[in-house]
Amino acid sequence: MKRLASRRLIAVTLIGSALALSLTGCSDEGSPFDFNTAGDGGSTQHQGLNRTAVSDDGVSRMPMGPRADFSVHRTLDDGTKVAQTTLKGSKSGVTGKVWVWAPKQYFDPEYANSGFPVLIALPGSYGFNSNYWANPSNTFLDTVARMSEEGTSLPFVVVMPVLNPAKRYYDGSDIPGRPRMGTWMTEDVPDFVRANFRTFNSRDGWAFMGSSSGGFVALKSVLKHPERFKAAISSGPDIVPDSPMWKGHPAEKRANDPRALAGALIKKPGAPDVYLAFQVGSTETLQPRVNKFIREYGKGPVKTHLEVVPNGIHSPATYVKGMEASSLSWISARLKAPVPHP
After folding, report:
1. H/E element, 279
2. How far apart are CA 157 and CA 99, in angstroms?
3. Of 36, 37, 164, 252, which has the highest C-beta tally within 10 A?
């Protein structure tokens, strides 16, 4: 990761400064935004739409569309944008909002032919009709931006979908007779990202992050689909599926239980390794449940890490501190980094 904090950062900083200067004295919230032309003078030559799907390096995937219509949600201090769109999931049938942030490195010409790692970030509570990681009320994106410049985190493209299609808990799962939120989260959202951003072909470039109910979905999604996703940061998570809509569907409920999924993965010959970074505040009552999960299932291909935040509570601010202390660096070391091309 230190290789990202090199002389190439000078070029990135200049690009970021230009972006910031363009905003001086005005707000462009709600304005159209295109991640494939921003920072490139309106040209698409560096961003890859309408090119072949696989880059020359054989591991990066270029965005082939269909192109989403983004509008600016907010601007970070470094000039980068959080933009939002509405995604109509072709596989799940679910329609919901998605917010995306790309780091300054994404617009650096030296990385124009490289994929970037993706972090799907999920909120707690209902996660509808917003995703609090996209908002200025917490410092999550600022922390990722700063740590990626320091070389202690990968420069993730952060994707922040709604967690539920209404104010009800769906456990990020395909509960029979309900909106197919498992398919939305693990198929439609990644397909949308691949269509619009430079990514990696393999699971080495894909991870989840979530808190509380979103921490459960992050944990469950990686354990259920280890062939697609490699790592997760699961903060203050529910450990078991607890939606009341599971009533009458015990088999399906068990099929989405992280304990059952982890147990099956441990027993599976040749199972791929998954990396689960847990976070809890030191005052949280759920810490024993997290410790028990790690003790019973943190073995074999299930690699675990625990960050206990001193004086921490069940809150996004606590979990950002944990990510800054160790969790973001821990998963970054296990995922693929973008590679500069001459």
Report:
1. strand 274-281
2. 11
3. 164
Across 89-108, average pLDDT = 97
CA distances, 80 to each of 137, 157, 233 (Å): 17, 12, 23
- Among 102, 217, 116, which Cα is nearest to 159's? 102
- Cα 40 to the center of its chain, rounded Å: 25
Q: Which residues contact 319 (CB under 8 A, 6 or more apart)?
A: 211, 235, 236, 279, 309, 312
pLDDT for residue 25 is more than 60: no
From the list 9, 5, 332, 335, the residue with the least C-alpha distance to 153 is 332
The DSSP line for 121-172 is EE-STT--S--GGGSTTS-HHHHHHHHHHHTSS--PEEEEE-S-SSSS--TT
- Distance from the Cα of residue 142 to its chain's centroid: 15
Structure-token pair, residue 111: 């990385």
101-113 burial, b for 16+ CB within 10 Å, e for fewer?
bbbbbbbbbbbbb
Q: Which two tokens stand for residue 184?
A: 């939305």
Q: Using only the alpha carbons of the chain, give its radius of gyration.
A: 19
Question: From the centroid of its chain, how far is CA 97?
Answer: 15
CA distance 230 to 303: 10
Name the amino acid, one letter, at 108: D
In whole angstroms, give the CA distance from residue 160 to residue 320: 15
Confidence of residue 39 (pLDDT cuts 50, 70, 90): low
Residue 180: C-alpha distances to residues 2, 40, 183, 187, 271 (Å): 40, 38, 6, 11, 26
pLDDT of 125-168, one tens digit each? 999 999 999 999 889 999 999 999 999 999 999 999 999 999 99
Cβ–Cβ under 8 Å, residues 103 and 157: yes
Q: What's the rounded Cα separation, in Å, for the pair 65 and 48?
A: 10
178 contact partners, CB below 8 Å, separation of at least 6: 170, 245
Please give the mean pLDDT across all residues of the chain.
89
Q: Which residues pair with 75 in a beta bridge?
A: 81
pLDDT for the residue 36: 84
